[in-house]
Amino acid sequence: MIETLLSLKGIAKSYGSVRAVSDLNLDIRQNEFFALLGASGSGKTTVLRMLAGFETPTEGQILLQGRDIVPLPPNRRPVNLMFQSYALFPHMTVSQNLAYGLEMERLSRAEVKSRVDEMLEIVQLSHLSRRKPDQLSGGQRQRVALGRALVKRPRLLLLDEPLGALDKKLRGEMQMELKRIQSEFGITFIVVTHDQEEALVMADRIAILKDGGLLQCGTPHEIYEHPGSRYAADFIGEMNFLSGRVRAGELVTEDGTRIAAPVPADVMPGDTVDIAIRPERMKIGTTNLENMVKGQVVATAYLGLDLQVHVQTALAAKPLLVRMTAQEVDTAQLVEGDDVTIGWTAQDTRVFRA
Amino acid sequence: MKDRSPALLMAPALAWLTAFMVVPCLLILALAFFRRGIYGGIEYTFTLENLGLVFDPLYAGIFLKSAWIAGLAALIAVVLGYAAAFAIAAAPARRQPALLFFAVLPFWSNYLVRTYAWIVLLNREGLLTGIARWFGYDGELPKLLYTEPAVVVGLVYNYLPFVILACYAPLSRLNVEIGEASRDLGASGWTTFRRVTVPMTFHGIATGFVFVFVLSIGNFVTPALLGGGQFQMIGNLVYAQFLTANDWPFGAALSMVLIAIMMGLLTLQTFASEKASGSGRHD
Ligand SMILES: Nc1ncnc2c1ncn2[C@@H]1O[C@H](COP(=O)(O)OP(=O)(O)O)[C@@H](O)[C@H]1O
Ligand SMILES: [Mg+2]
User: Fold this and answer.
1) Cβ atoms B152, B76 nearer than 8 A
2) Would B9 be classed as within a structural domain?
3) What is the pTM for the complete model shown?
4) In this structure, which residue's CA is closest to atom 6 in ligand 1?
């Protein structure tokens, strides 16, 4: 059985009349890389601050291995937070920043030194150990902040937008680095991000927050392939949306085209629905799929790995986005103005009640 | 090419300072190297006697006493001022300007008036005695006015707003998340204060201390009014040389040593804060 490390039970937080987090229930497992994903203002930082002890929930319990930690002050929690701003001590060197948390544990000087040196190796900062934070680049500061939290060997490490301040290339490298460190140390990570791609790449499981509430929780695959709502479908990856309704047991779009798709149980005849199809699930030039529509290519965008084709159809006012792999592109030779047929399977179609 | 406009902009002010501050001061200080004339005038023969006299135990003692009083006043002002600045910086942001205004309010009144107010408070039949009487105490209060503590109290009171301003600046700019990071890493509130808050705002503490010290050690109004006639600090001694003893060369020598001490401290403080800001510019 997988052991639960942390349970949030009905957590809510209000600031006056602002409800930052409401009725949040989550179980986070031992050694999990967990991502809290949400748009700006969705309550991610507030959740982390409650876990670290800087905010007291208005309601609910936070159980760490079965024990409620809400009454504990931040310095008594076996939890560490890597701040979004890094919050490094500007008057201390890199080494002193890393040593600070260990000195608080009253470890011997020798032990502090050996653990700091070890951590400097891991975050690759040994050569900069005597520098002060303002003499470091953004990426180096980020590693100091990570090392400072990690050196304490907490049971739970909280990271607030840890890669937010880095440029795109460095971010990609650091995503892999964080994953490697997490599995090497066997520490549970909760990472906050507003970047859905980052969450998909790094996390074992993702919780999507919206307006302070939990929208959906699952593995990246579950969330990507089976989004629980139109919002989640739109937020994660790219998606084509069609509006439709259920008429006489059939799903039809606004222009009357029948769509073959599994209709969820909560959709009643007469309901309006949103129909969603991923761009990479749509095929151009195939003939034997359950859904086929005619259209005209209005634009193409070459992205190296794949080609994005915008196709105007009668199904929706907006052109549909189709993603083709390099091999498909080679055989199709599409140009603007071409008449094409797009096809996709019923199984690749998602339906949400509008 | 280097932009020269800052130098040009500073030129008028520098010229003004040189013409009306630096030159007259140097002229006075130069007197220290001449002999005093028999009837109080100046005899223009070179001598080091005046400077030597400054280190005579009698006068060196007054220097030490002044330094002690100034140091005590600076220390007390820093402790009180830092606490006040800390409280103001911790108050809700929209209330801070008003609190700061009230803390600095006495600064806008006349120095003499403020000091006379303390005479009224500390007098033998003054306000403090009145309050003690009101509480039913009808013995004699210990002598308050014309004592060393009265001088220290007067100096602290007069320069406290300065310390509050000097400490408030770095305290209000402190990123609260850095304090939280300290707590997160296992430090108590007190340890966080000692190891993060104070070092990060040390610049303000040092500025406050040095300024109170420098302004106090040369002060002659407060010791004269609150310390009484017999109480002497360097400022009073200098005052006496120029205005009553008519020994301008010795007065100049005393001033020279005093100015050297002040300049030394201010230079030290400037270097220290430059070093501190070099490591504290980023949040
Ligand atoms: N100290 C606070 N006082 C009042 N409102 C707050 C405070 N902190 C956060 N909020 C509000 O709570 C909501 C969630 O904020 P936050 O947790 O910072 O979101 P995120 O990190 O997902 O961007 C926002 O609407 C924000 O304005
Ligand atoms: Mg945030």
Assistant:
1) yes
2) no
3) 0.84
4) A15
